[in-house]
Design a protein that fits this description.
Elements (H helix, E strand, L loop, with lengths): L1 E7 L6 H17 L7 E6 L6 H8 L7 E11 L2 H13 L4 E6 L7 H6 L2 E4 L7 H19 L8
Parallel strand pairs: 1-2, 1-4, 3-4, 3-5
Helix pairs in contact: 1-5, 3-5
Length: 154
Protein backbone atom coordinates (compact mmCIF):
# COMPACT_ATOMS: atom_id res chain seq x y z
CA UNK A 1 0.00 0.00 0.00
CA UNK A 2 1.41 3.35 -1.00
CA UNK A 3 1.28 6.12 1.59
CA UNK A 4 1.20 9.84 0.90
CA UNK A 5 1.23 12.97 2.99
CA UNK A 6 -0.64 15.50 0.84
CA UNK A 7 -0.27 19.01 2.21
CA UNK A 8 -1.09 22.56 1.22
CA UNK A 9 2.00 24.71 0.75
CA UNK A 10 5.67 24.11 0.17
CA UNK A 11 8.14 23.92 3.01
CA UNK A 12 11.33 25.90 2.76
CA UNK A 13 14.63 24.30 3.70
CA UNK A 14 14.47 23.87 7.45
CA UNK A 15 15.22 21.36 10.20
CA UNK A 16 11.56 20.23 10.00
CA UNK A 17 11.89 19.58 6.28
CA UNK A 18 14.94 17.43 6.94
CA UNK A 19 13.04 15.50 9.61
CA UNK A 20 10.20 14.82 7.18
CA UNK A 21 12.67 13.63 4.54
CA UNK A 22 14.50 11.38 7.01
CA UNK A 23 11.35 9.71 8.35
CA UNK A 24 9.84 9.28 4.88
CA UNK A 25 13.04 7.59 3.67
CA UNK A 26 13.12 5.33 6.74
CA UNK A 27 9.48 4.34 6.38
CA UNK A 28 9.89 3.67 2.67
CA UNK A 29 12.96 1.47 3.19
CA UNK A 30 11.53 -0.48 6.13
CA UNK A 31 8.05 -0.75 4.67
CA UNK A 32 9.00 -2.51 1.44
CA UNK A 33 9.08 -5.98 3.00
CA UNK A 34 5.74 -5.29 4.71
CA UNK A 35 3.88 -4.19 1.58
CA UNK A 36 3.97 -0.56 2.70
CA UNK A 37 5.32 2.26 0.61
CA UNK A 38 6.73 4.06 -0.96
CA UNK A 39 5.90 6.93 1.35
CA UNK A 40 5.78 10.27 -0.41
CA UNK A 41 5.09 13.90 0.37
CA UNK A 42 2.97 15.81 -2.13
CA UNK A 43 2.97 19.58 -1.71
CA UNK A 44 0.01 21.35 -3.31
CA UNK A 45 -0.46 25.03 -4.06
CA UNK A 46 -3.96 26.48 -4.38
CA UNK A 47 -4.60 29.01 -7.16
CA UNK A 48 -6.70 31.19 -4.83
CA UNK A 49 -6.71 31.75 -1.06
CA UNK A 50 -9.21 30.01 1.20
CA UNK A 51 -10.26 26.56 2.27
CA UNK A 52 -12.55 25.94 -0.72
CA UNK A 53 -9.77 26.68 -3.22
CA UNK A 54 -7.35 24.50 -1.23
CA UNK A 55 -9.89 21.64 -1.23
CA UNK A 56 -10.20 21.99 -5.00
CA UNK A 57 -6.40 21.76 -5.33
CA UNK A 58 -6.22 18.72 -3.01
CA UNK A 59 -9.03 16.64 -4.54
CA UNK A 60 -7.11 15.44 -7.64
CA UNK A 61 -4.58 13.77 -5.30
CA UNK A 62 -7.23 11.67 -3.54
CA UNK A 63 -8.48 9.39 -6.32
CA UNK A 64 -8.60 5.69 -5.42
CA UNK A 65 -7.27 6.41 -1.94
CA UNK A 66 -8.29 5.84 1.65
CA UNK A 67 -8.17 9.39 3.01
CA UNK A 68 -7.41 10.44 6.57
CA UNK A 69 -7.75 14.16 7.23
CA UNK A 70 -5.52 15.73 9.87
CA UNK A 71 -7.71 18.00 11.96
CA UNK A 72 -7.61 19.07 15.61
CA UNK A 73 -11.22 17.87 16.00
CA UNK A 74 -10.30 14.35 14.91
CA UNK A 75 -9.45 11.32 16.97
CA UNK A 76 -6.06 11.16 18.66
CA UNK A 77 -4.59 7.67 18.41
CA UNK A 78 -1.80 6.01 20.31
CA UNK A 79 1.11 4.79 18.19
CA UNK A 80 0.11 1.12 18.39
CA UNK A 81 -3.49 1.93 17.45
CA UNK A 82 -2.24 4.06 14.55
CA UNK A 83 0.02 1.20 13.37
CA UNK A 84 -2.85 -1.25 13.69
CA UNK A 85 -5.07 0.95 11.55
CA UNK A 86 -2.42 1.14 8.82
CA UNK A 87 -1.94 -2.63 8.98
CA UNK A 88 -5.69 -3.27 8.74
CA UNK A 89 -6.00 -0.96 5.73
CA UNK A 90 -3.11 -2.73 4.00
CA UNK A 91 -4.51 -6.17 4.83
CA UNK A 92 -7.98 -5.07 3.72
CA UNK A 93 -6.71 -4.29 0.23
CA UNK A 94 -6.29 -0.51 0.32
CA UNK A 95 -3.88 0.41 -2.45
CA UNK A 96 -3.12 3.97 -1.34
CA UNK A 97 -3.44 5.78 1.98
CA UNK A 98 -3.47 9.57 1.96
CA UNK A 99 -3.05 11.83 4.98
CA UNK A 100 -4.27 15.39 4.32
CA UNK A 101 -2.81 18.49 5.94
CA UNK A 102 -4.59 21.75 5.17
CA UNK A 103 -3.41 25.32 4.93
CA UNK A 104 -3.10 27.95 7.63
CA UNK A 105 -6.84 27.85 8.35
CA UNK A 106 -7.09 24.04 8.28
CA UNK A 107 -8.99 21.81 5.89
CA UNK A 108 -12.29 22.59 4.21
CA UNK A 109 -15.09 21.04 6.33
CA UNK A 110 -16.49 19.27 3.27
CA UNK A 111 -13.16 17.61 2.62
CA UNK A 112 -12.97 16.49 6.26
CA UNK A 113 -16.49 15.00 6.01
CA UNK A 114 -15.54 13.13 2.83
CA UNK A 115 -12.46 11.56 4.45
CA UNK A 116 -12.70 8.00 5.74
CA UNK A 117 -10.96 9.04 8.97
CA UNK A 118 -9.90 12.14 10.89
CA UNK A 119 -6.65 12.19 12.85
CA UNK A 120 -5.72 14.68 15.57
CA UNK A 121 -2.31 15.27 17.11
CA UNK A 122 -4.03 16.38 20.31
CA UNK A 123 -6.03 19.51 21.06
CA UNK A 124 -3.20 21.93 20.26
CA UNK A 125 -2.73 23.65 16.94
CA UNK A 126 0.65 22.80 15.38
CA UNK A 127 2.66 24.70 12.77
CA UNK A 128 2.42 23.00 9.38
CA UNK A 129 6.11 22.12 9.25
CA UNK A 130 5.90 20.41 12.64
CA UNK A 131 2.64 18.64 11.76
CA UNK A 132 4.31 17.14 8.69
CA UNK A 133 7.34 16.08 10.72
CA UNK A 134 5.17 14.56 13.45
CA UNK A 135 3.05 12.69 10.91
CA UNK A 136 6.09 11.41 9.02
CA UNK A 137 7.61 10.18 12.30
CA UNK A 138 4.37 8.41 13.27
CA UNK A 139 4.24 6.71 9.87
CA UNK A 140 7.84 5.53 10.39
CA UNK A 141 6.96 4.43 13.93
CA UNK A 142 3.91 2.52 12.63
CA UNK A 143 6.05 0.73 10.06
CA UNK A 144 8.59 -0.15 12.75
CA UNK A 145 5.81 -1.47 15.04
CA UNK A 146 4.37 -3.59 12.22
CA UNK A 147 7.88 -4.92 11.51
CA UNK A 148 8.38 -5.87 15.16
CA UNK A 149 11.26 -3.44 15.56
CA UNK A 150 12.29 -2.33 19.08
CA UNK A 151 12.10 1.37 18.05
CA UNK A 152 8.75 1.89 19.79
CA UNK A 153 8.64 1.44 23.55
CA UNK A 154 5.43 1.38 25.55
Amino acid sequence: MRIAIVAIGRLARSPETELVRTYVERATAAGRSLGLGPVEVVEVEARKPGKAAEAEALRPHLADSHVIACDERGKARGSREFAGEIGRLRDGGARRLVFLIGGADGLDPGLVREAQGVLAFGPQTWPHALARAMLAEQIWRAVSILAGSPYHRD
